[in-house]
Amino acid sequence: KDQKPIEPLLITPDAPVLGGVHGGRAKCLQRLVRLGLPVPPTVALDFAAVRGIASGAYVDGGALLEAFAPDALVSVRPSSEDPDWGGPGTILNIGMNDARHAALAARLGRGAADALYRRFIQSYTAHVARLDPDLHSGAGDIREMLAAFEAEMDEPFPQSPGRQLAEVLRAMAQAWEGTSARLLRQAKGAPPDAGLGLVVQAMALGVGDPAGGESGAGVIQFVSSSTGEPRVTGRYLGQSQGREALGAGGRALYLTRDPRGPSLEDLCPDLFDSLQDHGLLCRRRLREEMQIEFVIHHGALWILDAVRVRRSSRAAVRIAVDLATDGVIPQFEAVLRIEPRALNDLLHRQVDPDAVLDRFGNGIAASPGAATGRIVFSARAAQASAAREEPCILVRRETKPEDVRGMHVSAGVLTERGGVTSHAAMIARGLGLPAVVGASKLHLDHKAGTLTTEDGRVLGEGDVITIDGSSGSLITGAAPLLEPVLDDAFRSLLGWADALRDIGVRANADTPAEAVMARRFEAEGIGLCRTEHMFFEEDRLTVMREMIFAERPEDRAAALERLLPVQRADYSELFRIMDGYPVCIRLLDPPLHEFLPADRAGMLDLARALGLPLSQVADRIAALSELNPMLGMRGVRLGIAVPEIYAMQARAIFEAAVQGESAAVPEVMIPLVSARREVELVKAQIDGVAAAVRSETGRAFDYRLGVMVETPRAALRAGDIAESAMFLSFGTNDLTQMTYGLSRDDAGHFMNAYVSRGVFDEDPFLKLDMEGVGELLSIGAARGRAVRPDIILSVCGEHGGDPDSIAFCRNAGFSYVSCSPFRVPLARLAAAHLAI
Ligand code: PEP
Ligand code: MG
User: Fold this and answer.
1) CA 42 – ligand 2 centroid, Å
2) Which residue among the candidates 28, 282, 392, 796 is catalytic per the annotation?
3) Is the pLDDT of residue 469 over 50?
4) Which residue among 86, 669, 678, 810 is buried most deeply as judged by most CB within 10 Å?
5) Which ligand has the shortest distance to the CA of 819?
6) Domain residue ranges of the chain, discontinuous segments joined by +
7) How far is the CA of 695 from the centre of ligand 2 (A)?
8) Atom 4 of ligand 1: nearest residue by CA position
């Protein structure tokens, strides 16, 4: 066969610096060697070699072992490009056989020799021969284990170290190629052709002759994995090897001095000091917080490996910020080290501990965060739900690789079976998705589409539930959720991001609560306040309905007179909260009938409230109803047809502005414009209101009038519009709807089919369609600028919080993006990444 020979590389301080083809672990080990740390002899195999081995290439294990001392035992560790992608587990003590067992028993004692051989037989059985790991359960005797292996395999346990090594390498190489391993790593972002390197290392034995000095194994790190705060954590176990305890009689020690018991620091102070020095050296030179795996053999310290400290997103932020604060890395690098999406984890919600909850069961808390959504029972249904932008909880008996796509788009996952290492749990943690698994008291009936609780309640597809992946609680309905606490490191990081980025980030906020959130996330203002949301409260709704029902101008004026102080108070509250930051208020947008009742009972209530006959109410509602309301009398069309509404809103805005302390210039935005004349008419009216308020109050104030570009015509005629508009804000939700002729509300019926059949790469309501809608943005921007060079451009549709869409806006020279408050930190960080 024309195979390339396998070319192992012995890692020495002066070997060529390893490139990408040996994987991250090999590369890191080489750096440790170059730093002069006491690493046992190590050999690296590259991706190509491992791929060859997986597909059957011959491996000369004996030749590979020639790099090591004649009687060395070796370990094999996986070395993928990114350690987070996982890989097959490490196998230790390769080379153990009857002869070495006898020799080691004489040298180190029977207990230590047994421990080494026992462990190797166990791993070989489970991971190389792929026999049931229970084969050896209970059996501690080496002879019994060897006999059980032989009985099962029909051949003796391999005695040749070369063959053992070859078989281990093959098993690990093949495990990497398995379907579920591939899906798992792809879910964590690995490309389909991600390679695996393998590292063969001489064993430093953590077991030894007690008379020969301290022996044991441990891991140590210098920061907390959950918070990132400086803290020595890890574990050390005397007479053990690997990351777990081996054999009985091991002594677990505290690492640092501890009143509760003996510590490694007490027992071997010099060694502990060296470990700390190594840790500091790694931090400084590898520019990263590392977890160090070490072995002590007869009093000598060996460093086997160092990996990036595993970390929660919160810890990642703290670690990056501390490294930058200590001058180990520059600030911009700290900013770059945090994936914008990771901030979502930091922002994870929690179920309010004080809330009265209706729990319907519980399971294992498998992935943190709380999520509310409608029950779906299949990945397909989850995708359909996502296309409708409806959060869902994927409920499965257990998850399989084919569910991963559905998990990607769910708000949370609930399974009846499985534990913390189940497929569902691992994938969910990888994706940062709240998950509760192993809720075994629930009964899921797939055929019937029901989930029956222990106390006999039956939940079905579409029912809203809340899962708490931090406690395992399952709750009916939408539980009150608490927003997470944001610490100083988070604030510092985003502060640095702010200094680096060159596009503004505002928030879409309609209510005082949302404005408070916007400020908390340090949005630089409100980019869109949808005022219709102010009219849906019960007391206002009635007045609004009176206004809509008014037959005569004076009746309408009277109703608007009552709405005026309410609106003034709303705006003044927003101005107060935003404390000088700009607030962009959009005049009423939706069709009037959205404020009216749709059913008979509601009409009857309204008839009573207004003192009108039911028939008259029904007739009026019928007259206002539209076949195609999203293209009907809404937005500026309403403003022109019923001008008193915008006049009232403008007056409320200006009166609130002159009342308050804030120096901000209010911004007034006209929705759904398609023609120059619309803007001219509304502008003339609002200028008139401003003049009136100025003269009535004797206070001078400025305001900015702008236009939402939401129709293709507005984008094309942006030049005309810019004559009267100081800013253009692209409403990419409506603009996407109208560019495609695709209903925002109905696209869910076929979006799934469209995306899965590749008609659209992505749902254009989630990811800005750069080619079509994007071109309209570019045209609008250029034509607007040509007429008014200092025109302010922005995006306030849902796309404002999406990193790719932010990149588009930045390239087009927009001033800011505006997105929902929760996406503001992500947008700030993503914008900084673009500018670095
Ligand atoms: C838009 O259309 O993009 C927009 C921001 O307005 P709304 O979503 O309120 O229609
Ligand atoms: Mg819109």
Assistant:
1) 62
2) 796
3) yes
4) 669
5) 1
6) 9-97+158-202, 210-308, 348-482, 504-547+571-590+634-826
7) 34
8) 731
- Locate 164 and state its tokens: 């053992």
Report whether 116 contacts 96 (CB < 8 A). yes
In degrees to the nearest 10, what's the CA dihedral of 774, 631, 685, 525?
-40
Give the rounded percent of residues in the chain with a pLDDT score beyond 70. 96
> Is the CB of 672 inside a 6 Å radius of any atom of ligand 1?
no
**Structure tokens of 502?**
């060159």
Residue (of 599, 671, 598, 587) closest to 630 by Cα position: 671
The catalytic position among 423, 593, 799, 833 is: 423
Phi, psi for residue 251 in degrees, rounded to 5 = -115, 115
The whole-number pLDDT of residue 1 equals 46
Of the listed ligands, the closest to the CA of 818 is: 1
Q: Are 795 and 481 in contact (CB under 8 A)?
A: no
Q: Is 733 in the pocket of ligand 1 (CB under 6 A)?
A: yes
pLDDT, one tens digit per residue, over 756-805 is 889 998 888 878 999 999 999 999 999 999 999 999 999 998 889 889 99
Cα 92 → chain centroid:
35
- Quick one: average pLDDT of 57-62? 93
- Asked if residues 149 and 125 have their Cβ atoms less than 8 Å apart, the reply is yes
Statement: 210-308 belongs to CATH 2.60.200.30:
no
Q: Which residue has the tokens 């294992």?
A: 364
- How far, in Å, CA of 627 to CA of 641, rounded? 18
Q: Is the CB of 528 under 6 A from ligand 1?
A: yes
**pLDDT exceeds cutoff 50 at 249:** no
Tens digit of pLDDT for each residue in 394-449?
999 988 766 877 888 999 999 998 776 677 886 776 566 899 988 989 999 988 99
Write a three-state SS string for 337-372. Answer: HCCHHHHHHHCCCEECCCCCCCEEEECEEEECCEEE
- Ligand 2 centre to CA of 741 (Å) is 14
Bridge partner list, 526 = 507, 583
Whether 718 lines ligand 1, by a CB cut-off of 6 Å, is no
CATH architecture of 504-547+571-590+634-826: Alpha-Beta Barrel (3.20)
* Whole-angstrom distance, CA of residue 732 vs CA of residue 745: 15
Which of 556, 565, 703 is closest to 644 using CA atoms? 556
Ligand 1 geometric centre to CA of 531 (Å): 12
Token pair in block for residue 116: 């080494």
Q: Is 734 in the pocket of ligand 1 (CB under 6 A)?
A: yes
Question: Is 392 one of the annotated active-site residues of the chain?
Answer: no
Q: How far is the CA of 734 from the centre of ligand 2 (A)?
A: 5
Q: pLDDT band at 3, cuts 50/70/90? A: low
**Ligand in closest contact with the CA of 799:** 1
Distance between Cα 738 and ligand 2 center (Å): 10
The segment with the largest mean pLDDT, out of 254-258, 364-368, 724-728, 744-748, is 724-728
Three-state secondary structure call for residue 139 = coil
- Binding site membership of 635 for ligand 1 (Cβ less than 6 Å): no
The answer, yes or no, to whether any atom of ligand 1 lies below 6 A from the CB of 26, is no
User: Counting atoms of ligand 1 from 1, which one is nearest the CA of 732?
Assistant: 3
Q: Are 351 and 466 in contact (CB under 8 A)?
A: yes
Fold of the 348-482 domain:
Glucose Oxidase; domain 1 (3.50.30)
* ipTM of model: 0.99
346-363 pLDDT tens trace:
777 778 766 889 999 998
Distance of alpha carbon 500 from alpha carbon 831, whole angstroms: 8
Is any atom of ligand 1 closer than 6 Å to the C-beta of 796?
yes
Q: Is 796 a catalytic residue?
A: yes
Q: Under CATH, which number does the domain 9-97+158-202 receive?
A: 3.30.1490.20
* Residue 120 and residue 75 in contact, taking contact as beta carbons nearer than 8 Å: no
